[in-house]
Amino acid sequence: MLSPAVTDASSQSWQKLWDLDPAVTFLNHGSFGACPRVVQQQQQAFRRQIEAQPVQFFGRSLEPLLDASRATLAEFVGASSADLAFVPNATTGVNTVLRSLSFRPGDELLTTDHEYNASRNALDFVAQQSGATVVVAEIPLPLSSPEQVVQSVLSKVTDRTRLLLIDHITSQTALILPIQPLIQALAAQGIDTLVDGAHAPGMMPLSLQSLGAAYYTGNCHKWLCAPKGAAFLYVREDRRDRIRPLVISHGANSPRQDRSFFHLEFDWTGTGDPTPFLCVGAAIQFFATLLPGGWADVMGHNRALALWARERLSQRLGLALPCPAEMIGSMATLPLPEGNAESLYQALVAEFSIEVPVIPWGGLSNRLIRLSAQLYNTPADYDRLADALDTLLTRPQ
Fold first, then answer.
1. β-strands 354-355, 25-26: how paired?
2. I need a surface site. Which of 35, 244, 259, 356 has the fewest CB within 10 A?
């Protein structure tokens, strides 16, 4: 049932915080996020500072600003600032860890068949370079419980398994995976876990230190709504000496003793635009003011809307629910009748001005529709999508 807090009127008032095109029904926050106007203004202010005195900014102002934003982020994700480095995106975070570690022929790198394509490509590349083997655990869809995921992954563990790469929230299927029991079970066998948490920050509460993963990377430009190009890499303290940035720069031989080697390397890999990183703290603080319960209410609102939306489309279009509600955050997928995913997507955009991903997916059906729910979305948005799908799915294929 739709939460009383989730209404067209309240969501329409929040729409004014973003610059999204009002002519488009935007149901794809999950792909790239959307940055509120006030956070964009903060970014522009930082950019003006850079251009007013670049040497002052990069040489003397940048490190304290990075530290301040990182401290806010660390508190938000339940980590120590010392364990966090800013990176442009979660794909970079995954590549950074995989390219830093050493594997040998015969080693097994475990993942699932729901892993994000870019991260899977990085895993395949490292395996090809080292002679290791990628082992894939198949997660069935539909799912009746999170325990099926745990059983599937653990059934693939052998004495040659060296690392698990796993999404916290899957991109294509929008499932919250039960990563903590997997991390614990593998750690008991001496196997580290790299979590691709691209969607998790801002969608669900995080406590990275309690989670216990050796490595965790997450985007800040998705559900935290920071500017594009803001993400973090968490490296547990006992693994920090193993991880180097993809770009080796001045920090590699810096004689400084006032900062950790980890931050000296990651905080400066060459001249670039650091303003997305600097706005992470501002984005976190801004969203904390929007509802009485702060971020807990924001996450709760978005999850309630996503659950309502999937139930609404399921009932109106006769679509099966592919997983239990406990595995849903602020995104949800539904299987569509068989057909061409790309042509349906293009028709939704061209004929109905609805931006929502239609994802090719084997097994349950050959395509899924993925719904996102953010404060600016209204219940009417999903009814508009249901109307469009009702029209398009009844056309001759």
1. parallel
2. 259
